[in-house]
Every structure is written in C-alpha cells, then in structure tokens.
C-alpha cells in the first residue's frame, strides 16, 4: 500500500533561519511534507554549515537540521534580495525567522509586521529572550540560555555544574515553535486568519525547569547536582558491573525497593533498615546506600546484573555511547534508520519518531543556494 502524503503536503514554509532553534522547528515541518524554502546568505549560507566538518566533510548540526529543505541564497541588504524575499513571503503559508529582534524589525520580517501585511499568514519569531524587557537585544546562544534559565545549576556533579551535552535550549524553543505553528495552522483552517507567534529560548527552557523551580522555591533548597543519578530518588542511577559495563538502575516505589533488596541484592534485611525506609530516607542516606549497592553489582558481570534486574521487574538501561546508540538492537528491530542524501554523500539518520501511515521524509540536505534559480523561476511564473 502506498503511504499517504504528509499532512503538511502543499504547505509552503519560508525560513529565514540560522543555527539550531529555527532550523529544528522547520525540519519537523519538512518531515511532515511541507515545502520548506530556506533563505541563506550568499556564499557561506547558514553559519551552522561551518560548525564542524565531521559528517562526510559537512557540519553535523547542519546535516541533522536541514533534511528536506530547498536552499535559496538572497542578499537581504540589497533591494533585489529583499524584493525576492517579499515575493516568497507572499506565496507562503508559514514564515519562521530567528534573526536578532532589531534586525528582523529593520527587514520587516518580524511576525507582527508580516501578519499585518499578510493576514492569512502564520508567522513565527524565535529569539533568545523575546521582545521587550532589558534582555531583548542581548545575543543568545544555547549555553548562555542554559545558564540564564538555571539549567546548569542543577546539572553536573556535586563538585561542578555542567551544561547539557546537546543544545537543549535551542531544541526546546524549536519544539515549541513547531507545535505553536501546527496549532496556528489548525486555527487558520477554522477561522481563515493567520497568527503571529513568538517563542523565546529562555521561556522555552524555563518551562522545562518546572520541577527544579518548584522544588527549590517551595522546598527551600535547590535539587542537588547528582551526576548521572537522579537528584531526588534513590536508588536511581549508575552502577558499574564486574565487566566494566555501566547500568542505570531505577527503583520507583516501595514494592520495587523490597524486590530489589530481596531478589537483586539478595540482602532482604535492607528492605526494613530504618535508614532506607521510604525514598526520603534513602535519599538522605544515599551515599551509604550507594556503597552497599555498588559492592553487590561489582560482584557480577553485566549479563548477570541485567538478568537479576529483569527477573525482579526493576527498570534498568545500559549506559551507551554514540556507537552503542547507533547499534541499538531496538532501533534495528524497528527499522528506524535511513540514508539521507547530502552533497557529501548519503548519511544514515533516524526517521522521525512519530510512526504513522504518512510517507517517510525523502528529502536531501541542500547545498548552499542549490535551489535559488528554480525557486526564483517558480516565483516569476506564479500569478
């Protein structure tokens, strides 16, 4: 049976974008079948193309974020480039941009201005801090927002804070832009009216900080930094087996705690030890508990450890590196990898995590300006 077109088939998205947050949002739209026209600077294009050269000579960030898009180069400092952009916007259903707020206003591509000129348009601004307020015009990059949102203060080891290993502020902003755009398209289908949407990285990551904010504000102390272990639940974290493999073990309630003591540790007396009676006590005595648990797991290899945990119904996971993720047996069994064409050759990438009857993304990663002539010819031929 032939897969159905993506639900955004026929939707035109113009993306005046760079770096991570906006490209992440628009790649999701492309994966759903939208035609995404990416506007880049002549020559170098999106500066994320230069972040590294690890993916067959190309930037790993750019390859990840730009599947299925058409690249058009326009000089927006030139009247001809601005005129072409305005024509593109006139043909668009959605416009996404993450220029600095002042630059977007000068070009007239901020969401408010766009919807004023094109009332049926869904326009989305993505910025570091949002319009208005003392931080509006500050430069904002992912690591800076991780700091401003308090994320770094609750991440890392007890001795040293750490950033996330991925661009969580950018991804959070991109996901809220993506979901906001879908909601606005649904609204437009009912009302015929477009919508101006604004997403700030600080507010997006701030939404994800709800647990530590509430815990610290109303509990009196911030969650402790606990490395790869959970900040408030014990035992919930890494253990090293005799084979050197690391498992992450998660005990979530008292029934599991009793089974963990009896069947996994084979120390049933620990289940009634007053130091470990309830999660609050286990958390208060987590160092003593870790000493006991680590000593037991050091006595058997990873296969025996997983057998005991699985037989007892205790959740656990292997701590994998990127090679381990790429070879994950569950992803292989579910056939979740595909080759994506790029200018440097095919790159193996995961397919979108939403499983449906829609056609899988089949688009390529574009070279800088690869589609400029074709898109401009389409504009000239359009009524």
User: Can you count the helices?
Assistant: 16
Number of structurally distinct domains: 2
Largest sheet: 6 strands, parallel
Order of helices and strands: EHEHEHEHHEHHEHHEEHHHHEHHEEH
Please report the total strand number as a whole number.
11
Which secondary-structure class do the elements indicate? alpha/beta
CA-atom Rg in angstroms: 25 Å
Shape: elongated
Q: What share of residues is helical?
A: 25-40%
The CATH topology name of the largest domain reads Rossmann fold
Mean pLDDT metric: 94
Sheet with the most strands: spatial strand order: 3-2-1-4-5-6
For this structure, the quaternary state is: single chain
Q: How large a portion of the residues is in β-strands, by DSSP E?
A: 5-15%
The named CATH superfamily of the largest domain: Crotonobetainyl-coa:carnitine coa-transferase, domain 1
Straight-line distance between termini: 36 Å
User: Which CATH-level-2 architecture of the largest domain?
Assistant: 3-Layer(aba) Sandwich
Query: Which CATH class of the largest domain?
Result: Alpha Beta
Low-pLDDT parts are: none
